[in-house]
Here is the input.
Amino acid sequence: MKCKISFLLFLGLFSFSLSAQETKTITGTITDTRNVPLPGAELKVVDKDTYTVTDFDGNFSLEASVGDQIRITYLGFQSQTFSVTNDDVYTLALQDQTSELDEVVVVGYGNQKRSDITGAIVSVDSEEITKQPATTAIQSVQGKVAGVNIIANDAPGSTPTVLMRGLGTAEGGRSPLYIVDGQPLSDIRSINPNDIESIDFLKGASYANIYGIRAANGVILITTKRGKSGKPVFSFESYYGAKTILNQVKMANADQYIQYFNEESAANDGFLLQENQRYDTDWYDELLQTGLINNNSFSVSGASDNIDYFLSYNLFEEKGILDGQKFRRGTIRSNNTYHLFNDNFRIIQNLNIAYTNETPKPFGAFSSAYRQSPLVPVRYDNGLFGQSFVNEATGIVTFESEPGQRVGRLNTHANPVSQVFFEDTYINTTSLQGQIAAELDITDDLMLTTRFAATKFYSTNHSFSDIRAQWLNADPRRSEATFDTERDDPNGDGIVSTEFANNSYSVSRTESYRWNVEGFLTYTKEIDKHNISATVGLSRENYQGGEFTSSQGYDVRPERNLRNFNLRTDRLFDDSVGGDTFQSTNLQSYFGRVEYNYDSRYYLRAVLRRDGTSDFVTGDDNFFGYFPAFSLGWTLTNESFMEDNGVLDNFKLFAGWGKLGNQAIPFNVQSINSGDGSRNTNYVFGPAQSLIIGAALGTPAIPLSWEVTEEFEVGFDFAMLNRRLSGTIDYYNRLNTNAILNVRPILNSEFSSNFFDEAAEISNSGFEFLVNWRDQIGSDFSYNIGVNFSTNENRVQNVKPAYDGAIGGSLGNGRITKRLAEGQPIFAWWMYEADGVWQTQEEIDNNTSLGNARPGHLRYVDQNEDGVIDDRDKKYFGSYIPTYNYGVNIGANYKSFDLSVSGFGVGGNKVYNGLYNTRIGGENISAEQFNKRWTGPGSTNVNPGAERDVEASSYYLEDGSYFRINNITLGYTLPELSNFINSARVYVTLQNPFMFTKYTGFTPELNQNGDPTGTTGIELSAYPNTRSFILGANFKL
Amino acid sequence: MNKTLKHIILTLFAGFMLVNCDNFVEEVEVVDPVAEDSDDFEPVDFLTGVYGMHTDFSYAFSYLGMTDMISDNSDKGSSPTDTGTDKRELDNLNHTTSSVSVRAMWTQWYKTIGRARQAIELTELYEGPTSAPKERIIAEAKFLRALNYFWLVRSFGDVPIQSVDLVERAPVEEVYAYIEQDLTEAIADLPLKNDYASSDIGRATKGSAQGLLAKVYLYQGKWQQAADMANNLITSNQYDLEPDYATIWRESTENGPESVFEIQARGEIPQHGVQQYSQTQGARGPSGWGWGFNSPSQNLEDAFNAEGDAIRRDATIIFAGETLWDGRVVSTSVENPRYSEKAYSSANAGQSDGDKNIRVLRFAEILLIRAEALNELGQSAAALTPLNRVRSRVNLPAITTTDQAQLRRAIWKERRLELAMEHDRWFDLIRTGQAKEAMAADGKTFIEGKHELFPIPNDQLVQTPSMRQNPGW
Here is the structure.
């Protein structure tokens, strides 16, 4: 780089002096090394405004003078410069840049050539990211990186969950560490995908370990775009798309619902519904709309003698499939590099401003739409929202009744449309990220880098609740007058419940900041065949600091722009204010790295990181930890005995070992439990039984340390058949040596609150395969096929005695579905094994059954054959974590057309159909479940009847494997439009057009927040997958 | 290299040196997560926390299942489909090692014992002045600890002594010895009921500890000690029977002359009582105010009728269609035919925090303990005095038999009727060996060698696999 720039500088001066020369027309052809013509290659006369682009056949014609330097650039090829001589015709072949061996990989505090990497690092470039439009770049690479399981969430403004090489922690932080141009990032959503040059996934410990105490969940390095030498490039990218639900479940209609309800009710001696009722609401049709996605990006970049520049603006907007659900993000990025003192000193400046506006809507509406009865109208005739009222005397679903008739409820669920309607929240965020770095070449071999980076984040959440309207809508028999009476303090005690405020309005603000400063020296030297590179440095970081304030008031004006605590319609209620400050964490780190290779054959690499964090200061200096790593490599194809072997172009074996930390762990704090009111630390004494406040000690705090993961990997990179086939195959084995569990005290011990302790090991192991095939047939057609496949075995082992058995996966109805146990995947499914359906009472009487079994209920297996069905009969049924992931990416180019198809899938996992299982009574069911239900002895021995129990069982646990075509893109690059527009490509993209799954719910891709103890893997209030149709165009000027 | 460049380099190196020290990590102030040294609390607060444990919901539901519903005195109640998690199983003697009620009480009692130990230790270590005498605080905590161990040992047999070992189950004799020691020490340091300041009404008294110790002796068949200890209480002149049996579980007699120990509850705001105790047992359905659990059985009603014991029957049972003493009309269409009147709170009927003081020990029981112990000692004639004192209150004819076996039966029956729905029946059935016969009469199958004890909860065994399970489970 350095040499190139100074060379250009020199040439520029030179050519300037010769600019008075006469011009002539030169012509020629630009090809690749296989003599395939390159259409669209750019030729530019250095330091002049003259340039041209090759046509379909790679031919060009250009006005130039003898002595002019002409620079040829073409994406994917190394640029080349030639001098105009007296010849008029030039044929030049550009070197393929796809010799990915020379590609530079960002490895943290430095770069390495791809050919020198001795570990599993996967790089994804900008082209692949922008091909799959999404809010975040991480979602765009789903299915492209072996060993990285990205669980997408199609809700507007959501962040996908990333699991690199499995889930290694139960209670600790699960997010990978994101580093953008050396700056740690809190929220990946603040980065515009169009600004990204490349993403490098540091999967293996021997590379990730340079980030020490925060690297256990993997490290994702993002490099943003910078200006490239050549003429300024203006780039416009724009796309527009529509989103619909991918996999809508057909629910039972009104008649089916009535029949189902009556079967259930009859079994419980309840009232029956009348046939032929007025409404037949399809709640999903009422709830869902077509979402819209729209993105416009603009960037300008280039480089002049002393400065590289890149400036971009992006506006991304998405409307979700719920009414009013929106997410909008704008980003402005400015990346500049100043080359000073003959490029011996460089100042790098990056600035990113991201702001978002969001109006979220409750995902609970999806569950309500599943459960609410089709007999309930969206709105009654009087305009109020329909509710599940039913006249039990007539069996008609209405709130109206004659005297003496009881009006009850079909179920306890909300009207999903009203849930969405009454949610009135908007969230604004602003994120400012700035970085300034300096690189100084002290000698030819020694470089000093220092960086300072800071991020400031603001978020404001405005939430308005129209209490009066919700109160009136909750029961159509209520009147405004009653509400007003309640506001007049009818019992005269001076207290009016906020239940009768007209509305409530709350505003909360969060402000946070982080900064890091680091410096490191890099020494690079080639001595004969010995290549050595060493890095040593230190860094300080301060993060997690910030503050939070919130205020809530009542009876404000309802108009959005007049919502203000000072403009109130009434002052019956007190405001409340709250706030908190977040203690920041200081992180102090030292790192050193030595890389050595002999003749590009034998590689040796050693890394040591020492991290100390203020989160673990407990008196003595046990808050520092060492994280070492080693890796070795051997490139066999560079050995003389492998030369001209005719098959293998590249073959490198590598192996690595390292230690990684996870400091995002929960802490124990001993508290004294005490407080006023009715609680079990208080008691009443004395003649008036006065309430006396007492106290009890909470569980003593056990000091904890960060989780330490040890990882070993071994694998090989290969390329063969003229590099048409290449790939990486590796094996990894990572072990969290001191996984922290949430431990329930032993039942008969003194303390009752749970505590955290280092209590188990969690291992993740598996194979990763990444294979690419690329070929060119004739001059017009080229294609590539990439396949990746990875396996993961997740196990909890060596659990401390009595610490086993933490439960999770609560369905919210008192039933749980997961349990942590030694020898099982982390928080494995744990429930009864369903085995058929009780057909008759006689059958129940003669067999072991659950206490309340009735015909039509599921039968559960008495695993221990003790004649009783209880917790000991619950069985482990694997995990929601897939045991394998795979992706297929196919690309083809024919003349100006390009086509790409990508798909990915997971398998070996199970998901829980919580929507189907969790019924209290009166909920709707899917049409399929209706049709296959038990209706009497002999009807089915698989599916329960309308009257069934609520136990969690394997019946509701379904195969979670799926394969999704997640992108089909067809593009067309227009022939040269004009001298002004250099290149233009239009494309059409189908996102998620097809999903193949046996799962009967909406989506088997159940992200939630990724918490293994929670509802991850359980479909309850989950946002469904969506399908998009996108039209887009890119222009380059 | 020009001057500017030199300057820049120097600045950079200065920056480099700045980041070079460890104490950056220590600049953040860290709060010590150990709260034990807090100055805001004194020992008596932790004692209050021990008493407070007895106001938990488990005493309003799980406890009822393990003491009443399981017995012949009452049924699960409520609607047929509402199983009350495992209450139907308990009612039908189908409970298992994973029955939640059993687990709940096992845990509740041990956690209470834990709090009592903390209160004792914190009091012993406390150096400042205390608002109550240290000895008394410790004695009260010991009484509560003994009470909870007693509930444990009679339910589970051999149980671990928490401060000794969490896994090894101490033999019943050792557990009783531990209880006796706590109670003996408590008796020495606890004031007499009437010696407490009025603001301390509700605390454990010397009489509470004596009464419990008498009962503990009774359970062990230590007849002489039981008779003597009961007599200590009877002759302390602190206690007497309430004249009207119908009022003994009403608010008007709370902490009255008959009260030996009761769990306190306050009905006025700020309310605090055993969570939902009156609600879970309240009438269910039209005009109802509760969940309808723990419904007195036909068997119990028959037992009252057979004795001609209308006073205690009507004071114990709310019948569907009845108009209660406070004027409340119970509809004939409530879900169950009978509800426990002893659980009924007039002022706070269906509220979570009721005003119902739960009578744990009352004078009538002490009289019956003395009667039973004397009879077992062969002093049957002497036994008649305390027995008939209890009977005469409810206008029943005096028992005259001095046949030890007959009198034993009579005393057992008297205990059933006098203490019906007071959470004692099941243990009396076990203790006296009547369980199989009585449960058969109630249509339930009592398995000998198994049902005498509750199972150690499965969750406990998951945590401590080497702990022994009870026979038959």
Q: What stands out?
A: Residues 16-20, 32-36 of chain B have pLDDT under 50 and may be disordered. The CA atoms of residues 28 and 102 of chain B lie 48 Å apart. Chain B touches chain A through 86 residues (CB under 8 Å).
